[in-house]
Amino acid sequence: MFSHWDKWLTRRYQKVKLRCRKGIPSSLRARAWQLLSASNELQQRNPGLFQELERQPGEARWLDAIEKDLHRQFPFHEMFAARGGHGQQDLYRVLKAYTVLRPHEGYCQAQAPVAAVLLMHMPAEAAFWCLVQICDRYLPGYYSAGLEAVQLDGEVFGALLRRVAPAAHRHLRRHRVEPALYLTEWFMCIFARSLPWAAVLRVWDMFFCEGVKVMFRVGLVLLRQALGSPEKLRSAQGMYETMELLRSVPPPGLHEDALVHQVAALPVSEALIERERGAQRRRWTETRGEMLRPPPPQRGPHGARGVRMHRGEP
């Protein structure tokens, strides 16, 4: 498939999607993520740019913030355990280069765990271009000041939850548990801090192939697991008890295959998400005014985007 990637992506995308849902072999994951996101094309079109960005001084406030966060990323992973070790050095290089490339955005704390996951799989330069694609193509506006794009998607998520799990939606509204209280870290870190590691990798395999709809589906599955039965709803008598339930998802022992199966089966299409995003954005404008940096009307992965729009869901 790698040898004839463009042909597979344009003519047999459904097969690529099924392979990603099955789980990309660990030995192929780095190359697959780069091809799925088209970050390899960016890197090839910009030879030497990463090194040039590294050589520039950068803005002191962003560099100080990055320095403070280095030791907090996967501190028990051998790559990042040592202060000043090669893993932390590479993480600093990647995050600093991004602030130089996008000075209007700078640095956001949630970018650090995302970049760290990428560095576990590929060299620093490749991880940098993959991070650029995530920030620019998959999650535009997520890491900008004000986090408006994340807040908007929180409203979208709430509307989807009302369709998928109305009882859970009513419970959260009754106890004033807004999506921002639990969804922000899930989405901004692409579940890197919220799921068992094997599940994180499977979610990322699907995310790079299918785009942001995967995050919505995973979040909806987790909410249904946390609040999907009358017994669980009765056990959460207030905001505190409800938040404790949400902090304990997924339940212990949930296998990544079971999670992926539920995510794939959820009837939440990309078209539905985009329609709901349009409705929520109009509501945002009516109640809060224009967004500072409105997200583009269509978002998704660079390489597979056009194919998915013509081949149906899920």
**End-to-end C-alpha gap:** 22 Å
Number of domains: 2
CATH topology name of the largest domain: Cyclin A, domain 1
* Overall outline: globular
Q: Quick one: CATH class of the largest domain? A: Mainly Alpha
Q: How would you describe this structure to a colleague?
A:
With 314 residues, this protein is mostly helical. It folds into 2 domains: 34-138, putative rabgap domain of human tbc1 domain family member 14 like domains (Helicase, Ruva Protein, domain 3), CATH 1.10.8.270; 148-296, Orthogonal Bundle (Cyclin A, domain 1). It has 19 helices and no strands. Helix 10 (148-164) crosses helix 11 (166-174). The longest helix has 19 residues, at 270-288. It is globular. The chain starts with a helix and ends with a helix. 41% of the residues are buried. Residues 302-314 have low confidence and may be disordered.
Write a brief structural summary.
The protein is mainly α and 314 residues long.
How is the topology of this model organized?
Elements: H1 5-11, H2 13-22, H3 29-37, H4 39-45, H5 49-55, H6 60-69, H7 86-101, H8 111-119, H9 124-138, H10 148-164, H11 166-174, H12 180-188, H13 197-210, H14 213-227, H15 230-235, H16 239-247, H17 256-265, H18 270-288, H19 305-311
Helix pairs in contact: 1-2, 2-13, 4-9, 5-7, 6-7, 7-8, 7-9, 8-9, 10-11, 10-14, 10-18, 13-14, 13-17, 14-17
